[in-house]
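FAQ: What does the model actually see?

It sees only this:
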Amino acid sequence: MRFMLRNLTNLAQFSVRRSARNMSTLPDVHHLPQLHSTLEQAKRFAAYRAVDENLDYLNHRVIGVGSGSTVIYVAERLGQYLLDPKYAVHASQFVCIPTGFQSKGLILTNGLRLGTIEQHPSLDIVFDGADEVDVNLQLIKGGGGCLFQEKLVSTSAAKFVVVADYRKRSPKYLGTNWVKGVPIEVVPTSYIRVLSDLKTKLKCKNAVLRQGAPAKAGPVVTDNCNFIIDADFGEIEHPEILHRDIKMLVGVVETGLFIDNASKAYFGNPDGSVDLRV
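And it is asked to produce this:
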């Protein structure tokens, strides 16, 4: 059996090497055709630099691919490693773990191997976006509705790298730039109770059940078949305390406050520069 597996592995690597003869080198992001907006350019600058500076292609095998508009370019960059003869053999061994339905599609579209968190509960590295990043690398995530799976994957990794555009960089506190509230995933039957507790016990300014309109009548339903509440607390000076207090409420599955999780964050700017926060 070991002999057969070894032969299959060797055959796969030979196939990659043979096809690599017609491959192209890893493109320089500044030499690619421009995208339709400077904002999308900024996202791509951040994603490409984050992957290039943090992906250890010789040793990393299990890679988390997050959700959101910036992660589109993370998956794109990872896929380009498959097309470069220098990296192709190693890149063909990457197993990519998604954080939701969207990222599954990104992984497959870019020719990467799809895995699951059940198969690979320990990851080497995760690349994901954020709705806001404060000066201490605390995050608000969940604007896209994937916060539980994003947190499951990011906290299962040895390294979590945030990729975002310049709008997501808070000058100090969370809740400064992102004013839609902290996303909170809740069990559907509990949402009335949680809405009440957020207002009476935690004194949030406002809390609403996220709706799916105009694409869907009724509330947003997560990939885990739960509801999402968006709770506005204004500027959040102590997100670790708020996260703990929200988690204590009956019915709460997870919060969109990611505490002491990220190791660094890349922010793309329209002029092509990328700012790093560590």
